[in-house]
Predict the structure.
Amino acid sequence: MVITLSNVSFSYPEDPKRPVLDIPSWSLSKGEQVFVHGPSGGGKSTLLNILSGLLASTEGQVTILGQRLDKMSSRQRDRFRANHIGYVFQQFNLIPYLNAVDNIRLASQFSQTKKVSLVEQEIQQLLITLNMAQKDWQTPARNLSIGQQQRIAIARALINKPQLLIADEPTSSLDKVNRDAFMTLLMSIVGDNDISLLFVSHDLSLASYFNRVDALSDINRIKEEH
Amino acid sequence: MFAKLALQSLLDRKGSVVLSIMAMTVSIFVLLGVEHVRHQVKDSFSNTVSGTDLIVGARTGSLNLLLYSVFRIGSPTNNIHWQSFETIAANPKVKWAIPISLGDSHKGFRVLGTTRDYFEYFSYGKQRHLAFEQGEAFNDVFDVVLGSEVAKKLAYKLGDKVVLAHGVAETSFSLHDDRPFQIVGILKPTGTPVDQTLHVSLQGIEAIHIDWQHGVKIPGSALSQSEIEQADLQPKSITAFMLGLKSKIATFRVQREINQYTHEPMMAILPGVALSELWQMMRILENTLLLVSALVFVAACLGVSALLLSSIRERSREIQLLRAIGASPSFLFLLIELEAVFITLSSIVLGMGLLAGSLVLSQGYLLAHFGLHIESNVFTLHSLILVSAMAVASIVVAFIPSLIGYYQARTINK
């Protein structure tokens, strides 16, 4: 299993009586691509933050790639996230003043999984695979199109060869053409690299790309986030 | 990559960052400048005279006597009679005595009437004696020896003739143009007011004033060169004199004897004591200047801190992104600290460069007008310690935004 949640609950420390998440059980198998949909305010981002280790669950067991995140310190979770989890956001995926290469390289700085000499080669390889024209490699991210930015975001998420990729509404700011191109690219990359994908969106039309679709309301017993 | 990220982040906000760097550069310039000039002035003043046990002049304040006799700043209140000088110079406790006569000038540089003993006994710095770059001491009535800066600034060489002016104004209409002096020697640089001085014999001073009265040439008087040389050129009065004693133990006794000299009111001062009195007076001013400079620096540090703090608010998404790709809150803390360090280092480089440039440009002016030799090399151990302290201070002040960044990174996903 890549993800196993058991009796996980979460509430923010400043409002402990109002739980945001209450998940009795949920899991994601290796190589599985899961689409989780739900309305805004349903706790999607909180769930992703717990799975990536940005937040610690209040109760329960959070096991990612066989490691208990709920037992780790904040620093250990940061290291674990850098080494094993790729993350793609809805928008603001890149540091706007850094170019494509530096944005990708930055992610590799926090990981201890590979030698520095290999990183440059892999960055180039990823950018070529993602059809990024070489002339745009040194362009600051803010000067690139949204589509290009999202492709670089994928490259950045993949540079550390993660076993789990978390995507938080990455297509919501793309038009239909770019959205389809992005999804095709993403699915082919995770398929080729045997990466487990947890894709969260409110756009149900994307469900057809996935081999498993879950509604957040079926996972989380708390129906509305406060 | 860490440094590159901090640098690129600053470049991305170059407008406000440049303003912060400018503010900090000015504060570093002021703080280093005050400290550098303070030290240099102290060194310059302390090195101006050494080996002189007593300076004697007409009764006035000890500082005034020190300033006009040694630093050529200000004017004497009165002259002292030559006989008084001779009496005291003949004191068995006195090893040497150098008479000084001031009151004339040449193109803004002071003229000092003295004897050949000046070149033998006067010392500066660490007991360094005057040395000649070219030529030798004056022998004839109308010989003049130039300080190094006078020769350099006015491009004089041996054998050139110079005309002295009555009074010490930069532009004088009362010229002793009928009796020019010939340059017979040029002294090596000393970094003291000696460099700004023309040295002539006391007889030379007497000779150019022989047919003058009350600062004006007597109309119709036109003595020939031979008449002047045959005239009695024994000085009647001098401005002050310096004494070297055979034994330091006798210093206070000789000082008391001079101060109680009944034939003429005179005072003797110990140069070191007068200098320390000067520093005592200056200390309040120094400390005030230092405090103001330090406050300016603190204000600049707080400005940088405010800049970084406001940037954290603008960069909350960036912080979130960095956290998502594995950056720890400590990384964010160090990133903001590094940005503060970059701003401070840039300001230090600019501030020191600006200071060195300003000193190079103002060196001549300070030397000419105040007799102060200020080194343009600001890279001294003291300034490096000061700069290090400023860097540490900026790091400490940057703790505020860094800690806020740290806590924001910890709670970014709430």
Summary: The two ends of chain A are 31 Å apart (CA to CA). The longest strand of chain A covers residues 3-10. The mean pLDDT of chain A is 86. The first helix of chain A runs from residue 44 to 51.
